[in-house]
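Subject: for your reference before the review

Hello V.,

The reviewers asked for a structural picture of the protein, and I figured it would be easier to keep everything in one thread rather than splitting it across files. Below is the amino acid sequence we used in the manuscript, unchanged from the supplementary table.
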Amino acid sequence: MNRRAFIALLGGAAAWPIAARAQPDGTRRVGVFSNIGESDPEAQSMVAALHQALQELGWVEGRNIRIDRRWAAGNPDRIGVLARELVGLRPDVLVAHTTLAVIALPAIAAIILRVI
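And here is what came back from the structure prediction:
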């Protein structure tokens, strides 16, 4: 996915009704999950596009939004563990980057939300 398409997709996702579950201080929480490593150039490009899209919508990390990131770095044993950890933080929105992350998050979220 190219950067422009990613930003357009994220722009739609960022328009979610996040006022429903704000943190006590009014900060919103975004969970980002990827199966690649944090230092990977593709990961860096994705993070930069995410920050740019959010800033264009008025969301600035450290001011009114918190971004929790989890990077499986290609380790299949870590995918489930990190997905559970991230979903357990109860972010207002989850952003999955890579196919394995997209598959893992909904399955984990469904399990956790049934328990909560």
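For the response letter, the relevant points are probably these. The CA atoms of residues 29 and 66 lie 5 Å apart. Confidence is low (pLDDT under 50) at residues 6-20.

Happy to draft the paragraph if you're swamped.

O.
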